[in-house]
Structures are given as structure tokens and as C-alpha cells.
């Protein structure tokens, strides 16, 4: 991943001693892929073939972008560890930010999400399924792709009217699901 040094603020750069300390921490495994991340790295080529890319951290030949530089890893996208086992962010072929979920076929989640997505109603605020395809290595699992969204409370509600509008939209979802 190419870092554009001219665009970075001065506080991103470390002293030579600090940079070496981070390089040593990296060599000792501080930023190594977790077990869950290794699963996503291994599935990345298949996802690429399906038109979805993951962050550079999940490329087969990933090398930390800060090693050999004086840039603090905290400011490097590829130092961010994934906190969830079954969901990861990615991009579609057209560059849209997406959420990719690896889930079991036997549960009801796929069926429910499909039902909510298929409801053709002007008040349907449900998140659409953009793509659903099988995992060829694990026949009991599939990948479900949806738009990447922010948490409902980000930014936080500031006015009562915002809370009321949120509740109104949630009630529309329930109404849509029951129709």
C-alpha cells in the first residue's frame, strides 16, 4: 500500500527509535493476522473472482506498510485488526463499500434477510442483499453481501425529533414485514 507522505500530518511520523520499536513489535507478531483474519485472507482470492476486494491486510502476500518507515502503525489502514469473525468490510468491483458476511446456510438469517429485502413497499427501509453466493470450500456456508452502513446512532441523536423519526422508521419496518 503506497503511503502519500506529503499528505500526512507531522504527528504521524515517529522518531527513529520509536519506529524501530514498532518494527520490532511487528516482527514479534503484534500485528499478525488473527485466526479469523487468516480465514478471510484464505478466502480473498475467491472473493476477488466474485468481484469483491478486501483491505490490503488480507492479500496473500501482505507485508505491513509501516515496516521500514518512520510512520506510526496506528495511522496505517493495514494495522487495523478485524474485530468480528463472520463479517468484514470490502469493496465491490465498482468501488462501493460493502459488508461481507460468512454465514451458515442452515440458519434462518438468509431466509429472513431475503424476505425483508424482497418486500416491495415504499416504506421498506431494510438493508438490501446485494449478492448471495456459496462458499466452495465449505458447502454449509455462504457469503451474503450488503451495503456497508454506519451504526444507527452515529452521529448521535441531538434532537427529540431525530429520535422520533428513527422510531417512526423502525415501526415502518415492522409494518412492512407484517404485510
Report what the structure shows:
With 179 residues, this protein is of the alpha+beta class. The chain contains four helices and five strands; from the N terminus they run H-H-E-E-E-H-E-E-H. The protein is globular and about 65 Å long. The termini are far apart.
Percent strand equals: 15-25%
The main pleated sheet reads as: 5 strands, antiparallel
Helix fraction bin: 25-40%
* Distance, first to last CA: 49 Å
The structure class reads: alpha+beta
Q: Which value, in Å, is the CA radius of gyration? A: 20 Å
Task: From the structure above, extract its key features.
five-stranded antiparallel sheet, 31% helix, 179 residues, 4 helices
Short description:
The chain contains four helices and five strands; from the N terminus they run H-H-E-E-E-H-E-E-H. It has helices at residues 16-27, 35-49, 109-118, 160-178, and strands at residues 52-53, 87-92, 97-104, 131-134, 141-147. It is globular, with a radius of gyration of 20 Å.
Amino acid at each position: 500500500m503506497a503511503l502519500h507522505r506529503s499528505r500526512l500530518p507531522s504527528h504521524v511520523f515517529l522518531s527513529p527509535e520509536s519506529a524501530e520499536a514498532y518494527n520490532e513489535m511487528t516482527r514479534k507478531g503484534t500485528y499478525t493476522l488473527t485466526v479469523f483474519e487468516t480465514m478471510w485472507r484464505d478466502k480473498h482470492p475467491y472473493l476477488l473472482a466474485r468481484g469483491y476486494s478486501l483491505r490490503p491486510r488480507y492479500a496473500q502476500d501482505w507485508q505491513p506498510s509501516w515496516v521500514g518507515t518512520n510512520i506510526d502503525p496506528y495511522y496505517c489502514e493495514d494495522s487495523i485488526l478485524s474485530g468480528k469473525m463472520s463479517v468484514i468490510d470490502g469493496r465491490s468491483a465498482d468501488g462501493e463499500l460493502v459488508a461481507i458476511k460468512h454465514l451458515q446456510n442452515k440458519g434462518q438469517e438468509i431466509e429472513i434477510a431475503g424476505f425483508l429485502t424482497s418486500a416491495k413497499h415504499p416504506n421498506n427501509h431494510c438493508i438490501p442483499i446485494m449478492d448471495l453466493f456459496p462458499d466452495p470450500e465449505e458447502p454449509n456456508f455462504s457469503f451474503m453481501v450488503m451495503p456497508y452502513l454506519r451504526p444507527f446512532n452515529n452521529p448521535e441523536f441531538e434532537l427529540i425529533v431525530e429520535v422520533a423519526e428513527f422510531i417512526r422508521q423502525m415501526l415502518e419496518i415492522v409494518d412492512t414485514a407484517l404485510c
